[in-house]
């Protein structure tokens, strides 16, 4: 089996429009959550989110491209450009024929849907732009990445709500690990910060009106974010041969299904995914120094996740660090696992653990070291990234420093 | 602006060239407008003139709207305006 390494990373999210800016914000414990700004926002009871501001799409794309790129595709392409520039890869011949793109995404072109529904339902128009379908389809981002970089191998989009990116990256890992593809572009993106997108979440009554405070006793819900994270997963030998810089090694993953409830998390399903990833990566629980938590800031997720970690790690659960960066970049739904993987890479490469900000009161049901409020320097050899989705679909990735 | 000027402006924008570079005898192919670009053009014409253009991208040659040159498109739009807005 091939070893799989990460040789490029890119992102767009509320903390930064590049990886260095995002990691700096995480080190400083900066919060990207603020007042939402879009049409009809005054009709929402939830007014906050981690929205990407200061983003000028016309600086990156021409008019023709913008008629085809929903915001989630725009974020993906910009993140992919950053990742591939770092990896220094160009695709032609056999490399192009075998390499592909697997991306996570949950809502597709939600902004496009919202704008066009508004136009036909509210404004009573009877005609929509001809590219509404290719713009809103969930695979649009993966397809445009394949076109821009000439990737002709296996490409598709994975949709498992909040675990979409982790499922996508698990698939990409498997393809490189098994020798099917020398390089896979992977990660995910989401952009549902529009009236309809937030209104739908509002209905579920799990959203916080003031802040995302994972693991804190006074937490009162999740806060949505938006953005993309894109990585280059590459066969280790391929990367070594061309002298590529290696950011981290992906050493294993696991996916499980709770098979129990459409929204309530399950300790058992989460624990089986964490334990499964350790088993797949041939790791002992004591090897793990950091976990990037799913940590949504809801009452149910955080206590269930902590209980699952305690179950799997036993006494070591009190020695490892676990933080939720959603407190800073919000819950980026189908793109969240990809953005969160950046915190794992920072822990392994730079020895900096991103904090859980907004932490105010200890919760006895979340009695782990959640790296409250301030980043910490620590040497970490192995990091895990958790994602537990609505629908009971879980995926955990294991990374090791190189 | 005449209907012809407005049609040419829309076609030129789609072709990403100046309106002065569009000749009435040009075909869509001459102007580098592919099938997707043509569909977008027709949408823009419908919006501009508030008309419905009978056009099916599956069989453009059977549509009751002649797209063989800029000239025929202008004539087609003029005909539709006359009929649909009468």
From TrEMBL, chain A:
It comes from the Bacteria. Keywords: Cell inner membrane, Cell membrane, Membrane, Nodulation, Transferase, Transmembrane, Transmembrane helix. InterPro entries: Beta-ketoacyl_synthase, Ketoacyl_synth_AS, Ketoacyl_synth_C, Ketoacyl_synth_N, PKS_Beta-ketoAc_synthase_dom, Thiolase-like. Transmembrane segments: none annotated. One of its GO terms (cellular component) is plasma membrane. SMART domains: PKS_KS. PROSITE patterns: KS3_1, KS3_2. It is found in: Cell inner membrane. GO terms for biological process: fatty acid biosynthetic process. Proposed to synthesize NOD factor fatty acyl chain. Involved in the synthesis of a highly unsaturated fatty acid moiety, which forms part of a lipo-oligosaccharide that is responsible for host specificity. This is Nodulation protein E.
TrEMBL record, chain B:
Residues 1-81 form the Carrier domain. SUPFAM superfamilies: ACP-like. GO terms for molecular function: acyl binding; acyl carrier activity. Keywords: Phosphopantetheine, Phosphoprotein. InterPro entries: ACP (IPR003231), ACP-like_sf (IPR036736), PP-bd_ACP (IPR009081). It comes from the Bacteria. This is Phosphopantetheine-binding protein. It comes from Marivita geojedonensis.
């Amino acid at each position: 089996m091939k070893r799989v390494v990460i040789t490029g990373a890119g992102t767009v999210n509320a903390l930064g429009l590049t990886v260095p800016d995002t990691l700096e914000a995480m080190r400083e414990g900066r919060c990207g959550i603020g007042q939402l700004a879009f049409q009809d926002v005054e009709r929402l009871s939830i007014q906050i989110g981690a929205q990407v501001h200061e983003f000028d799409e016309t600086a990156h794309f021409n008019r023709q491209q913008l008629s085809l790129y929903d915001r989630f595709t725009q974020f993906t392409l910009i993140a992919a450009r950053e990742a591939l520039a770092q990896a220094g890869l160009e695709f032609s011949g056999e490399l192009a024929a075998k390499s592909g793109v697997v991306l996570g995404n949950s809502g597709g072109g939600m902004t496009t849907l919202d704008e066009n529904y508004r136009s036909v339902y509210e404004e009573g128009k009877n005609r929509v732009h001809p590219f509404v379908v290719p713009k809103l389809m969930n695979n649009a981002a993966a397809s445009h990445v394949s076109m821009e970089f000439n990737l002709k191998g296996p490409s598709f989009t994975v949709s498992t709500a909040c675990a979409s990116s982790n499922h996508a990256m698990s698939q990409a890992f498997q393809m490189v690990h098994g020798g099917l593809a020398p390089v896979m572009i992977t990660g995910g993106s989401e952009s549902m910060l529009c009236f309809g997108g937030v209104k739908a979440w509002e209905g579920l009554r799990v959203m916080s009106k003031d802040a995302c405070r994972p693991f804190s006793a006074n937490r009162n819900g999740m806060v949505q974010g938006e953005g993309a994270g894109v990585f280059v997963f590459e066969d280790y030998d391929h990367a070594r041969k061309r002298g590529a810089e290696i950011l981290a090694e992906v050493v294993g993953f696991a996916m499980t299904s709770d098979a129990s409830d459409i929204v309530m998390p399950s300790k058992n399903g989460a624990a089986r995914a964490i334990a499964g990833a350790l088993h797949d990566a041939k790791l002992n629980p004591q090897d793990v120094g950091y976990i990037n938590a799913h940590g949504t800031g809801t009452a149910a997720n955080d206590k269930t996740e902590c209980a699952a970690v305690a179950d799997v790690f036993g006494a070591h659960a009190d020695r490892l660090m676990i933080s939720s960066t959603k407190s800073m970049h919000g819950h980026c739904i189908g793109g969240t696992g990809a953005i969160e993987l950046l915190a794992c890479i920072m822990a392994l490469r730079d020895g900096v653990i991103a904090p859980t900000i907004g932490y105010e009161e200890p919760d006895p049901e979340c009695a782990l070291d959640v790296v409250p409020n301030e980043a910490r320097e620590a040497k970490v050899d192995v990091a895990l990234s958790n994602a537990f989705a609505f629908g009971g679909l879980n995926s955990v990735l294991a990374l090791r420093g190189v | 602006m005449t209907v012809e000027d407005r049609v040419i402006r829309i076609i030129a924008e789609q072709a990403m060239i100046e309106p002065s570079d569009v000749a009435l005898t040009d075909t869509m192919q001459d102007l580098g407008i592919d099938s997707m670009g043509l569909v977008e053009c027709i949408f823009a014409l419908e919006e501009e003139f508030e008309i419905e253009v009978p056009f099916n991208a599956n069989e453009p040659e059977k549509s009751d709207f002649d797209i063989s040159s800029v000239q025929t498109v202008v004539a087609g739009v003029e005909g539709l305006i006359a009929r649909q807005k009468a």
